[in-house]
Amino acid sequence: RQDTGWIWEGQRGDRDDHRFVKDVLNDALRKFPLLADDIIVTGHSNGATFVWYLACDDIDLRLRIFAPVAGALVRTQPRACADAGHRFSLLHTHGDNDNVVPLEGTTWQSGWIGWMGAEASLNVLADASRCSRADTLPKIGTVVTKRWYQCLSGRAYRLDVFQGGHGIPPHWADTVIAWSKTLPRFCAAGRVRASHARHQARH
User: Fold this and answer.
1) Which long-range contacts (CB under 8 A, 24 or more apart) does 189-195 make?
2) How many other C-beta atoms lie within 10 A of the C-beta of residue 13?
3) Tens-place pLDDT, residues 19-65
4) All residues at 6 or more sequence positions from 59 whose CB lies less than 8 Å from its CB, including other chains
5) What is the pLDDT of residues 54-110, one digit of tens each?
C-alpha cells in the first residue's frame, strides 16, 4: 500500500488511521466489558502528535479522554484543535529536557516544519474552548502541573512537565488514571455503558 510509515494527520493517500482506530475500538468493546468513560487514548512521540489530532478531529463520541506524551501539535498546523466546541479532556505529559520533541517546540529544519511547544499546543485548545482560568499547581516531586479549566465545553486540559527527556515518567499511568477519575462523566445519570455507546455510534 502507499503512505506507509509514521504519519500524524490520521489520513493520507489510501491510508486511514482514523478508521483503524474505530475498528480497534469496536472490536475491544465487543470482546471486553468496557465502559466508554474509562477509555483513555494515549501515544508517545509521533504517536502523541497523532493522538492530539485524533482528539481534535472528533472521530468518535466514545473517545473523550486523551493523554499524549512527548509529542505536540505541528507548528502552524492547529487544524481542528483551533475550533470551538471540543468535548474531550486532555492531559499532556512532557520532559523538560526532551531533545527529540523539545518542550518549547522547534523551528523549521531539514524539510520538517517542526512542532509547537507543549504549552502553546494546550493554549490552542484553551483559547478555542474559552477556558476562563489557568493556574500552576505547587510542584509535586519533580512534576510541575499547569491546568486550564472553567471552559465552555465543561472539559479540562492539563500539562505535566517532569524532569527528564524523551520518555515516560515513573508512575505516569497511575497519574493519568487518577486524573481521569476527576473528570465529568458523559451524562449526569452516570456512565454510558459500552453497549449503549455502540448503539449511538451506529445511528
Assistant:
1) 191/35, 191/36, 191/37, 191/38, 192/35, 192/36, 192/37, 193/35, 193/36, 194/29, 194/33, 194/34, 194/35, 194/36, 194/62
2) 10
3) 888 999 999 999 999 887 789 999 999 999 999 999 999 888 889 99
4) 10, 18, 21, 22
5) 999 988 888 999 999 999 999 988 999 999 888 899 999 999 999 999 999 998 877
Burial of 123 (0-12, 13-18, 19+ CB in 10 A): middle
DSSP SS3 for 12: strand
**Which residue do the cell numbers 523539545 mark?**
102
- The span from the CA of 86 to the CA of 155, in Å, is 8
DSSP summary character for residue 37: G
Rg of the chain in Å (alpha carbons): 17
Greatest alpha-carbon pair distance for the chain in Å reads 52
How far is 25 from 95, CA to CA, in rounded Å? Answer: 29
Of the candidates 158, 124, 156, the one whose C-alpha atom is nearest the C-alpha of residue 143 is 158
pTM for the predicted model, two decimal places: 0.86
Q: What SS3 state is found at 41? A: strand
